[in-house]
Write a structure and sequence with these properties.
Length: 291
C-alpha cells in the first residue's frame, strides 16, 4: 500500500510547509512530490491534504497517517541502530577446533564481547576440515581452524601457533634421558582424533619397519586425552598451553624425546567468508597477527 519513501515524503511536506519547499529540500521537482502524494492518496482511497487552501494542510485522516508514518520511520531507525556500531545484537555462529577451546577461546570470546556487548555466541567444536565445509556452507559465520584447512575465498588471518609436546603420568618413571622412537613405541600412545594432522604425524612416526608399532588411541576430546595420560594409560601428545597447570601441579610430566620426534606446531587462522559488519570485522582483525 505504501513504503518508507512515501512516509518520508509525507513527513517532509508537513515539515517544510508545502509541496514546493519539500521538493527543494528533497532535491526533486514539485510535480514529482505532488504526483507521489497524489498516488499515495489514490492507493489508500483517502485525502491526506486539504488543497483548497493556499498552503496544503493535513486532513483529519492525514494527521493520523502522519502519526503512523512517524512511528514507521522511528522503527526503521531503531532497527538500523540495533544492527550497527556498538549496538550490535544477534547470534554469531562461531566454529572452533578442539585445540582452541583449551587455548585461545577465552580471549576470542572476550574481544568479540567487548566489541559487541549484546552479541550472543553459538559455539560449534569440530575438526578443521569440517569447519571449512561449514563456513563455505554458511552454517557458521566465523571459524578458527588449522591454516592449511582455510577454504578459498575466506578472509582473516593467523592467530598464532600452538606448541605440542609429549606428556605422561609421573608414575611411568620414564627417566630424564630423551626417549628414542623404539622407547616411545613400548607404551600406548594417546593423541588427537583420527584424520587430524597430529594423529597422521604420529602414525607416520611409528610406521617404521624396525619397530613394532604401539597401540594408538585417538580422541576428538583433548580433555579425554589428558585424562587418559593422567591415569597412566599412555603417553600423549597435548598442547603445552593447555596442560601448563597440570604440569605445574605434578599431575603429568613432559616427556623428553629425541629432536626428530618432537610434535610439529599447529598454526591456526581466524577466518570468515563474508563481512560481519565494521565493528566485528575490526574485532576479528585485532585478533589476527601480521602475516
Amino acid at each position: 500500500m505504501f513504503d518508507l519513501r512515501d512516509a518520508e515524503m509525507l513527513r517532509e511536506v508537513v515539515r517544510a510547509g508545502g509541496f514546493r519547499a519539500a521538493a527543494d529540500a528533497l532535491g526533486l521537482s514539485q510535480s514529482a512530490v505532488s504526483n507521489r502524494i497524489a498516488a499515495l492518496e489514490r492507493r489508500l482511497g483517502v485525502l491526506l491534504f486539504d488543497r483548497s487552501r493556499r498552503q496544503a494542510s493535513l486532513t483529519l485522516v492525514g494527521r493520523r497517517m502522519l502519526e503512523e508514518c512517524e512511528r514507521l520511520i522511528a522503527l526503521r531507525d531503531q532497527i538500523a541502530e540495533g544492527i550497527s556500531g556498538a549496538s550490535i545484537a544477534g547470534t554469531l555462529r562461531l566454529g572452533v577446533a578442539e585445540t582452541i577451546v583449551h587455548t585461545r577461546l577465552r580471549k576470542i570470546v572476550k574481544v568479540l564481547g567487548e566489541a559487541a556487548p549484546a552479541l550472543r555466541i553459538e559455539l560449534s567444536v569440530e575438526v578443521s576440515e569440517r569447519l571449512a565445509a561449514m563456513l563455505v556452507g554458511d552454517e557458521i559465520d566465523l571459524a578458527v581452524m588449522l591454516r592449511q584447512s582455510v577454504p578459498a575465498g575466506a578472509t582473516g588471518g593467523p592467530i598464532g601457533k600452538t606448541s605440542l609436546g609429549w606428556y605422561a603420568a609421573p608414575g611411568l618413571a620414564l627417566g630424564s634421558e630423551p626417549l628414542s622412537l623404539a622407547a616411545l613405541a613400548r607404551h600406548p600412545i594417546v593423541s588427537f582424533s583420527r584424520g587430524t594432522p597430529p594423529y597422521r604425524e604420529v602414525e607416520r612416526l611409528f610406521a617404521q619397519p624396525e619397530i613394532d608399532p604401539p597401540i594408538l588411541h585417538g580422541s576428538a576430546s583433548l580433555a579425554t586425552v589428558l585424562s587418559l595420560v593422567e591415569d597412566g594409560l599412555g603417553i600423549g601428545t597435548l598442547p603445552a598451553e593447555m596442560v601448563a597447570r597440570d604440569v605445574a601441579a605434578g599431575r603429568i610430566v613432559p616427556v623428553a624425546v629425541e629432536p626428530a620426534l618432537a610434535p610439529s606446531d599447529l598454526h591456526f587462522a581466524l577466518c570468515r567468508m563474508k563481512s560481519l559488519g565494521a565493528t566485528l570485522d575490526g574485532a576479528v582483525a585485532s585478533l589476527c597477527e601480521p602475516e
